[in-house]
Structures are given as C-alpha cells and as structure tokens.
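Quick one: structure tokens for this chain, please?
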Amino acid sequence: MSEPETTPRHGLGYIARMNIHLIAVGEKMPAWVQQGFEEYAKRLPRECTLRLVEIAAGRRGKNADIARAIHDEGQRMLAAVPRGARVIALEVNGRDWSTEQLAQQLEGWLAGGQDVALLVGGPEGLSAEARAAAAQQWSLSPLTLPHPLVRVILAEQLYRAWSILNNHPYHRG
C-alpha cells in the first residue's frame, strides 16, 4: 500500500490529501442549490476536495413500494462510496456537532488521509444497509431540513470548519 499524498498546510505541518464525497439522493436541484454548493466547494483547498455524487431517487407516488425504493437508493449509494472511504451517515438521530467539533472531525479526517463519504438519504431517510455501513452518524439539526438545503449547509459548514483549522478570517465565531 502506498503512502498517502501529503500537502503542506498553513502553520500546521503536513497533512494527507483527501476527498469528501457527498453522496445524496436526488437529482435536478434548483439552480440556487447548485450555485450555493459550488460556491463553498470551490473555496475548499486541493487537499480537501468536496465532490457531489447524485443518486436517482426511487419511484414515489401512488402505489409505490417505498421500502423497495429506500433499499434500492441505499444500494446505489453504497455502490458510489469509493473503496476505503470512511462512511458517515447524515441521520436525524445521529450525533450533533458544533462547528468547532466539526473542525476537529475534519482535522482527524485530513490527518488520516482517508476519503470520507457523507450519505444523505431521500425523503424517508437512509436504508438500514446504508446506516449499518457508516462508521459515524451525524445530525445537522433536530429540525427537518429540505434535502436541497442540506447540500448547501454541508458545503458551507465544511468550508467553515476548514477556515477554523487554518485561522482563516471567514469564521469569526
């Protein structure tokens, strides 16, 4: 196994490069969602790239088999997780982190050099298999958030966490 590629980080020595893969159910988001996500994703440095992988939602509607839709979404999500990535499920009952705690999590992820896959389920949440594959379960809020907004919030909070780690003026907490 080869050593992870390292990149100098402002003031804190060397860290490994990693990618964060936001694997989310839902396609064809409104333009403001794409713009918001891209705005924060592009601000992240090369050593912490944020990538979006959209998973087609299962069929919903009259007479739809919702359990099957959730299961199929989960299978497609897990197939999209890069080999060796640390899986984190976004779940309403997961652990909540303050922005500073997220920065600590991000620092650990960066130091480990292992890619991270953040799983965001569809309207009814994640499949049992997707939850079981997760090393951690994270709750953004006890509020019910619209799925498009979750993408923007995640990208912004990851950028804010990076800003904290690098003493960047964006976070003035």
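Residues 35 and 105 are 26 Å apart (CA to CA).
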